[in-house]
Amino acid sequence: MSRPRLRHIAFVVQDAKEMADFYTSKFGMSLFHTDPDGSHFVTDGYINLALIQQRLDGDVPTGFNHFGFQVESVEPFLETLEPKPALRGGDRPFAEYRAIDPEGNWFDLSAHGFLPPGAGEL
């Protein structure tokens, strides 16, 4: 099996559009997805940066939220990680499972990667 690769970092931000504009204009990243809630997703072609729009009625503070590994297959991790990774629900095109490390940090596991299906490398 190939080594898992870090391919995704997520931050909760106060203004996702402004942040996406910053990273696309200053660092040449490409915007590849915008969620209905206003979250923006940009990439350098290798790392996906999720800029999650903070909700005024939510209790999640701004700042680092989670990271994600692209893996060849999720199944071996389902057998070895404790607590067991949880299947992410809904129509998320980016990550299949959410897990937690010993210090309580969230991370995602994805066999198909962190770009939308059909996007290829941007």
From TrEMBL:
InterPro entries: Glyas_Bleomycin-R_OHBP_Dase, Glyas_Fos-R_dOase_dom, VOC_core. Residues 5-122 form the VOC domain. This is VOC domain-containing protein. The lineage of its organism: Bacteria, Bacillati, Actinomycetota, Actinomycetes, Pseudonocardiales.
